[in-house]
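Protein Record: Sequence and Backbone Structure Tokens
======================================================
Tokens: labelled as protein backbone structure tokens, with as many entries as the chain has residues.
Task: work out the structure tokens from the sequence, keeping to the layout shown below.
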Amino acid sequence: MRIDLHAHSTASDGTDSPAELVRNAAAAGLDVVALTDHDTVRGYPEAIAAVPAGLTLVPGIELSCRLDGIGVHMLAYLFDAEEPEFARERELVRDDRTPRAQAMIGKLRALGVDVTWEQVARIAGGGSVGRPHIATALVELGVVPTVSDAFTADWLADGGRAYAEKHELDPFDAIRLVKAAGGVTVFAHPGAAKRGHCVPESSIAELAAAGLDGIEVDHMDHDADTRARLSALADELGLLTTGSSDYHGSRKTCRLGEYTTDPEIFGEITRRATGAFPVPGAGGDARA
């Protein structure tokens, strides 16, 4: 089985619609794909309706969190999306994305970059607005050559010249909320130093003690040494280890299935979850 547990659609900052994402996952030879848009579950209905035969969809999310001033991305799988407290917190995080993006645009304009809210909103296309949409605008304007090049201290990285904060969850609260909704939590790309500061291993140990289920080890932003270190840490802490592409369509260079999760680990994730079930394809919507 080929299992990719981290992929984004146009419901947040990917370039594939939810239906395109599941069709492309099947075309890439995947058996399982997780839809993990940033702070939103709006892509679920379209993705579920389009899951092709032979593919299983895992409903998930990537939650924006912050711990001691450091950004933390928390993947959550198979939770009850209707659980009231968790739904309210997701709404708070999601709704703060627009004023945050507008603040970042204001900072860019003060730096002499002729970016506008209308341009960023067009790029987002109705999805949950995030930094990758602003980064895409910078590429369009010729300010940087690629989206990744926008995530530096000069521009959009944490603490960068055009960075602005938004409402984010405490990761301990995120774990509690996901658990209360019957879901499973995995710390996304915890060693991605190129994105900014990473939380120390002591903090990962504290999160594990609070109920964190796993860490994402095999990821494009982790080199071989980082993967080995995280794998050893997971063994020490009794955490599950996952692998995934963090696919964003054409917005990033990673491909669906570039990294995958062991089927036994996926089986354990589904055994632990009580809030929702994976969705097996039954043919889906074959329309392009």
Remarks:
- The chain is about 35% helix and 15% strand.
